[in-house]
Amino acid sequence: MKNLGYLIIFLFLSSCLNQENKTENEKQVENVIAENDSTKLNETSIKFFFWYKSNYDKLNALQLVNNADLKNLDSTKYYSVNFKNAATYLNEFKKSGFVSQNFIENEQKYFKECEKNFKENPQNDGPAEGLDYDRIVYSPEFIEDVITKETIKSKAIKIDKESAVVEVELNYQQKLILTYRKENGNWKIENIMPK
Questions:
Q1: Pick the CATH number of 40-194 from 1.20.140, 2.60.40, 2.40.128, 3.10.450
Q2: Which residues contact 62 (CB under 8 A, 6 or more apart)?
Q3: How remote is the C-alpha of 60 from its chain's centroid?
Q4: Is the full-model pTM beyond 0.85?
């Protein structure tokens, strides 16, 4: 009977130790995954901004606002969103592979909000409200000065299983917060906001 008691105690302690080792191993695996995700997120963020820089002229050649071209300005017409060009613009982001479907849908909603604002507050001169800044880098500076190899830095600041937050510093002063979501095992940008 005494031996049975020792056996039960031994089995109990063994299972506790195995459980402790298992959780320690699980923690090590989670740390390796987090480090890999952190590296992947930082690399993806930097690659995205260099993709944007290399496609900047092509993207900005798309007139997103009707009647905002200074060369062909008609003072009798008001601004409106050019939804055909907006769709082409967003399709380029989608084809890049860097952004999520949510990113695309949120930008589509934003264009609709701008159109609603144009109808409620007709405008036909000056910067087109809501579309008068770069929604990717949030900077009025030339893109060549904003995104450079010498100044761009990326730091993953929060990583969960399916979402992450990354801080990107573009040029010593311009900091952005990128939120990511995993889609089919890949990190995709959901949102970009200034810090």
A1: 3.10.450
A2: 82, 85, 86, 88, 89
A3: 19
A4: no
**Domain spans of the chain?**
40-194
- Which strands make up the sheet holding 163-169, listed edge to edge? 153-159, 163-169, 175-183, 186-194
CA angle in degrees (0–180, nearest 5) for 86-122-75: 90
Strand pairing report for 175-183 and 163-169: antiparallel
What is the spatial distance between Cα 90 and Cα 1, in angstroms, rounded to a whole number? 75
* Separation in Å, CA 157 to CA 137, 160, 172, 182: 19, 10, 18, 16
User: Length of the chain in residues, anyone?
Assistant: 195
Distance CA 176, CA 154 (A): 10
Rg (CA), the chain: 25
Structure tokens at 1: 């009977």
Please name which of 166, 148, 149 lies closest in space to residue 157, comparing C-alpha atoms.
166
pLDDT tens digits for range 74-98: 777 899 999 999 999 999 999 999 9
**Residues 17-50: pLDDT tens digits?**
555 555 655 544 444 445 689 999 999 999 999 9
